Amino acid sequence: MEVGNVSMKTHKLPPPPALQLQTQSPEPPPRPIWQIIMVAAIAAGVQFGWALQLSLLTPYVQLLGIPHTWSSFIWLCGPISGMIVQPVVGYYSDGCTSRFGRRRPFIAGGAILVAFAVVLIGYAADIGVASGDKAGGKTAKPRAISVFVVGFWILDVANNFLQGPCRALLADLSGSNSGRIRTGNSLFAFFMAVGNVLGYAAGSYTHLYRFLPFTKTHACDIYCANLKTCFFISIALLMTITILALTMVKEEVFQPENIEEEKSSAPKRMVFFVEMIGALKEMSRPMWILLLVTCLNWIAWFPFLMFDTDWMGREVYGGKLGEGAMYNRGVRAGALGLMLNSVVSGVASLSISHLARICGGVKRLWGTVNLLLAVCLAMTILVTKVAESSRDFTTANGTATPLPPSAGVKGGALAVFAVLGIPLSVTFAVPCALASILSNNSNVGQGLSLGVLNLAIVLPQEQSLQQ
Asked: In DSSP terms, which residues pair with 399 in a beta bridge?
């Protein structure tokens, strides 16, 4: 009777919806781990360039004569391009039928765009002077500024063009294996930390231009030449890793099973935002919770990530921007803190699976490190108060100049930087892994799912910049 009942129930089941018919081919087995490592390593090349932006581009902006108040408007490019580019690229990479695969054409195009943008930014001063700007001095160079802004926006678009398909390809290579998806995203976070360390190290070496003497010109001083040299190294690293990854890791050509329906729906696929709204409606409740938690998480992260070195210069060292050397000493100490943060983040990224087992799962791990994030951010207030109460001054010609903070205060501030590397590594890995796992159980492709997740990241960034 039970067998008969089961047979009756099975016979009455409705046919699967058409949207699922397109992706019902047998699930391929997970690829070897070395292929996942190769794709994840692209993050090192991408993050090398990001680290250079964070450590060197703001002074370079001032060198070109861009007013400090305009800097935040330039940085708005990041969240704006993230809101548009990643979801669009993710959406169209999900349905790409190129003979090179779904993700690889977008990854290759993004890497080429990054290289072009970096050269444009590095040679902004030279192009400006060649087209009529005055060399040297602190006066504004409008032509160089225009070239820089165009290059900067292209760079942000290219980075978003590149990162989304990279993470989607990691999920594709992992198949439906949740553990392999988590490992892939942990490796991606690890290589991001490696890129940060390399970028900060290259940016801190003031004589790097000597390896490429042609970078120093009458329009580009030593600081500018160092930045240009760092960018050339960034291009070489990114292109080498990308070429190796795309050559050694092959993708199968995507062929929808229901070809006739795919052709009939082609005009509708051009209306991206309509399709995206439909994808949002189809998202499961866990995915909506993931977006909400990610958004709240990044509301906490962005103020620190954007003003960490400024906090060291102003609050911990007691300096003022453009007045005396104390602020610059604090900024350099903050750069050391970022280096420590990247090292800890890299080590923690390799331990995420082990930490998840200790905490009872990745969700509990994410909740635990968010509590650690809250404690560390609260500690910045304590460090600031202790630095203010213990600050000593020296008086010369009737002017009081703050002395460097005590070893205990400086150590406490650097400890905050270092400990924050643990929640940062989890923040870079776990939400993307969860989004990939959840998308396997829904009608939303990996590319679009990760692009929508990126919306929850860039919206808090835009709010922080506007403030």
From this structure: 396
